[in-house]
Amino acid sequence: MGLPLLAVACCALLAFVARPHCAEAAKARHFKWEISNIFWSPDCEEKVVIGINGQFPGPTIRARVGDTIHVELKNALHTEGVVIHWHGIRQIGTPWADGTAAISQCAINPEETFTYRFVVDRPGTYFYHGHYGMQRAAGLYGSLIVDVAEGEEEPFKYDGELNLLLSDWYHESIHTQMVMLSSKPFRWIGEPQSLLINGRGQFNCSMAAAHTPGATQCPAAAVNRQCAPVVLPVLPNKTYRLRLASTTSLASLNLAIGNHKLTVVEADGNYVDPFAVDDIDLYSGDSYSVLLTTDQDPSSNYWVTVGVRGRLPKTPPALAVLNYRPNAASKLPSLAPPVTPAWDDYAHSKAFTYRIRARAGTPPPPATADRRIELLNTQNKMDGGIKWSINNASMVLPATPYLGSLKLGLNKSGLAAPAPAPETFSRGYDLRSPPANPNTTAGPNVYALAHGATVDVVLQNANALAANVSEVHPWHLHGHDFWVLGYGEGGYRGDAADEARLNRRDPPLRNTVVIFPYGWTKIRFVADNPGVWAFHCHIEPHLHMGMGVVFAEAVDRVGEVPKEGMMCGATASALVNGGHL
């Protein structure tokens, strides 16, 4: 059956104003999910995880560009709310579906149901995860893959596809972790016990013990399928697309495949100028596509190694097997697994990161910015505890979601007009020493952005409370992609030398970007998507400790917001008394 006449007319119009996606009418894809606590053994140690429809990780969503996703989500957790953030989906026209508790919606209460509806407008490798408390660290995540529209093609060729969702795993519950992070005196949660590949890992043993002194060999046949080693079946002399995404709570990662090169072709749902590497760094929140050619000895299988970067690794690497068929999947590779670069080899990390450039045809950034916001990342003390702060304010979220309070114009407790957040920091701040005054205060950290404004953000890293410590921070922006203009060492000055470091010719579009220790990163985006959007460190404990800001963008232009997402705090009483969203 052909397209309706109106759809044909719309397609003809779209051909002149955008990439047409009209070979086939877009579809509505419906999912019905129940979120609950379940017993699971991600690394062969049984614990309680947050699952979806009784499984971990959650179901993979697969759609095509232009499709509308409907997820009817029931919260079957007994004592806590829940939301789902669709990481990398810009939510154009649907900011209420972004899934950020206290920002875009109320948390969904136990036994309540909320339906997310949104359009996926670009192809790419994405994922979803919990965005309430630290539920991502409890296993609430899954993959979201968006294929090109029917009749269109990717700008690269491949014969098959493999999907790897990477994460880390703590044996301690998130509730205990949150108490530790909020305790006075402060208690650090430590490093994760395991790294997981597609939700599977092995604790206290190694599949490659023969190559790892002191390690215990894992059983040849997995007793529990929930933690069985991941096997990636391939045929010789083919090219495969590996979709990679990191939803880790803490760890930065590096992935390598024995004897194989990887060609990077996509980052965060945007095509990049292809380049080949031996291994790839993934920070929490990153997603990539790489091409792998199976051109090695077909009589062997090969190790896939995932190791920790940016922190002294106390978590052993995760291993999977690249299984050249018809070899048996149980045939272990004879060669030792690739070795992850040294955790503090930042030169290696920077060399990889700096090679990421936009593919030809990517829209360029505006030549100039209307506004520059500079965000100093520091670790501080507050009331006997430890927090992360931005320009000396540690983010605290309200009981009433900003999207609702700002749209309704509520003035109670300053909800509609939070105090202006500082847009810069003192150039006299000593970035390489612990803060002279370690104390900080709580703040809403809300920045109001004019509709259509071009905004530059400079992320500035600094020394933590301990001497000679500056951590890696991957920052994720909701509701937008941004151009990564450049990186620098030391303090950002904005002078000619800093400007000379910027890439204005082919900066990549991303939604997540890293700031390296004692360095800065500069990004640019256009505030063209009305809503209220989080911008935060994607490391779960850092966000929990206040490392983030909020961009409130032309909320008066937001269309009708579903009331069921705003029935909490001050918006609930306003809506009951006749308010309209």
Automatic annotation (TrEMBL):
Residues 37-147, 163-326, 428-554 form the Plastocyanin-like domain. CDD domains: CuRO_1_AAO, CuRO_3_AAO. Gene3D superfamilies: Cupredoxins - blue copper proteins. GO terms for biological process: negative regulation of defense response to virus; response to hydrogen peroxide; response to virus. GO terms for cellular component: extracellular region. SUPFAM superfamilies: Cupredoxins. Residues 1-25 form the signal peptide. Transmembrane segments: none annotated. This is L-ascorbate oxidase. It comes from Urochloa decumbens.
